[in-house]
């Protein structure tokens, strides 16, 4: 279950940001964008996140996931469409198979809410993919 490694990476990044901030005593929520093509099961991620937070400054924090639909653009005709699941990667307009995936693979922390202060935007760096 790679959701556990993702949850551990999120917790680690938020802990590092909390340490750098210096005055954080608790994290209340973490907002995460999850692309529909990222191969992540949101319910499994939420379960793993709760386990990964135990004993950390994130204990009891809420994980809020925002689904990002997959979008593609046809290279020859520039038509854009939602790829859906299972993904439709050939152009529905002209049938070409040369497409650029524009969105849907995101897996990034969008924001973190500290208990002792206002919401702080986290770095918009993607979480390293498991290889």
Automatic annotation (TrEMBL):
InterPro entries in the record: HypA/HybF
Q: Does the keyword Metal-binding apply?
A: yes
**Annotated Zn(2+) binding sites:** 74, 77, 91, 94
* Alphabetically ordered keywords of this record: Metal-binding, Nickel, Zinc
Q: Where does Ni(2+) bind?
A: 2
Top-rank lineage group of the source organism: Bacteria
| Gene3D superfamilies (UniProt xref) | 3.30.2320.80
Please give the family membership noted in the entry: Belongs to the HypA/HybF family.
- HAMAP family on file: HypA_HybF (MF_00213)
| Protein purpose | Involved in the maturation of [NiFe] hydrogenases. Required for nickel insertion into the metal center of the hydrogenase.
Q: What is this protein called?
A: Hydrogenase maturation factor HypA
């Amino acid at each position: 279950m790679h959701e556990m490694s993702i949850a551990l990476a999120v917790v680690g990044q938020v802990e590092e940001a909390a340490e750098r901030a210096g005055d954080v005593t608790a994290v209340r929520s973490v907002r995460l964008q999850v692309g529909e093509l990222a191969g992540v099961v949101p319910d499994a991620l939420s379960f793993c996140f709760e386990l990964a937070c135990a004993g950390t400054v994130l204990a009891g924090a809420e994980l809020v996931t925002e689904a990002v639909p997959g979008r593609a653009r046809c290279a020859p005709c520039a038509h854009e469409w939602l790829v859906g699941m299972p993904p439709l990667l050939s152009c529905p307009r002209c049938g070409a198979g040369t497409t650029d995936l524009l969105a849907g693979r995101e897996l990034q922390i969008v924001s973190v809410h500290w208990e002792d202060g206002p919401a702080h935007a986290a770095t918009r760096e993607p979480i390293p993919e498991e290889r």
